[in-house]
Design brief:
Blueprint lengths: L1 H6 L4 H9 L11 E5 L2 E6 L4 E6 L7 E4 L3 E9 L3 E8 L2 E8 L10 H29 L1
Length: 138
């Protein structure tokens, strides 16, 4: 029974939340965060740093330069739902902003909100990335 429960993520979120408590002790200014099914994403635009606690590795806060991010974009389709994706060192990370098994129009209230939320995070990721790259050139 234990394995099943872990697979459905009932424990994962607890560990992720526990780990998240340590984020405020880090020397970064993570002023934006997004909690998704895949984990929690933290963005420090000013310093061009990203923090990520993956649901698959919930006890570790991964902190890395936003320059390692690529291909951040909003996805909104009837098939995959609404959210944003980005690549970290070429590995795709998907963060749904709306989880539903119904088809939601991106024009409708909840759909439009999920899209603008995804757009906002894509913008934050790109801003952090250009900040990181500017820092590298100094």
């Amino acid at each position: 029974g234990l394995i099943m429960m872990i697979a459905y993520g009932s424990f994962t979120s607890f560990f992720v939340k526990q780990t998240a408590k340590g984020v405020k002790n880090l020397p970064y200014n993570f002023n934006s965060s997004f909690k998704g099914r895949g984990g929690i994403l933290y963005i420090d635009v000013e310093n061009g740093m990203i923090g990520f606690i993956s649901a698959y590795n919930p006890r570790k806060i991964q902190v890395f330069s936003a320059s390692r991010i690529g291909g951040a974009q909003t996805i909104a389709s009837a098939m995959t739902g609404i959210g944003f994706v980005f690549y970290l060192d070429g590995k795709k990370i998907s963060m749904p902003t709306l989880l539903t098994n119904k088809v939601v129009s991106t024009k409708s209230g909840i759909g439009a909100e999920a899209v603008s939320k995804a757009d906002a995070f894509v913008e934050l990721l790109m801003a952090a990335k250009s900040q990181a790259q500017a820092g590298n050139r100094r």
